[in-house]
Design goal:
The protein is mainly beta and about 160 residues long. It has one helix at about 1-10; strands at about 40, 45-50, 70-75, 90-95, 105-110, 130, 135-145, 145-150. The chain has one domain (about 1-15, about 40-150).
Length: about 160
């Protein structure tokens, strides 16, 4: 299920910067308040829209694939996300909508204190590495009426121990 997880998690970031798609890096663009037409609210650290719009291009696809374009996606990230240290993001993917993929996934991702390895590297606490210095601490979802846990790190929260 790591492949399915990778597809949904890729909504979280522009891989050239490691930032959530649409999030400004500190010291550059100043985000405006409120939600834009695609579902981004950069001030609040929320995206609430269809997967088709997460890349800021409405083309009937999610990264070139129409399978996930109509799925609903809610992403929430903290103010540290664009800069790294203490960063976290939560990703809730819902394909149980008309024209959706049928898949439902929930992810929690945190920045690690140091590089954690290649993409997909299992980590001792039960998570796995992505984007060089980020860990998926929770990845669970449903596909074709089956429930899958790809990661369940201990602890699974964004608390002090992270």
């Amino acid at each position: 299920m790591l492949a399915a997880a990778a597809l949904a998690i890729s909504a979280c970031a522009d891989h050239s910067t490691g930032l959530p798609t649409g999030v400004a890096k500190s010291g550059f663009d100043v985000p405006s308040a409120g939600f834009d037409a695609l579902g981004y609210n950069d001030v609040a650290g929320i995206f609430n829209g269809i997967a088709d719009g997460v890349d800021k291009v409405l083309d009937g696809t999610y990264r070139g694939d129409p399978t996930y374009a109509n799925d609903r996606l809610v992403m929430k990230w903290n103010k540290a996300w664009p800069d790294g240290d203490g960063a976290w993001i939560m990703n809730e993917w819902n394909g149980q909508v008309p024209g959706g993929s049928g898949e439902v996934w929930h992810y929690k991702i945190v920045r690690t204190p140091a590089p954690c390895g290649a993409y997909g590297t299992p980590l001792p606490d039960g998570g796995y590495c992505i984007w060089d210095q980020y860990e998926v601490i929770l990845s669970q979802g449903t596909v074709d009426n089956g429930h899958f846990w790809d990661a369940h790190a201990n602890p699974t929260g964004f608390g002090v121990s992270r």
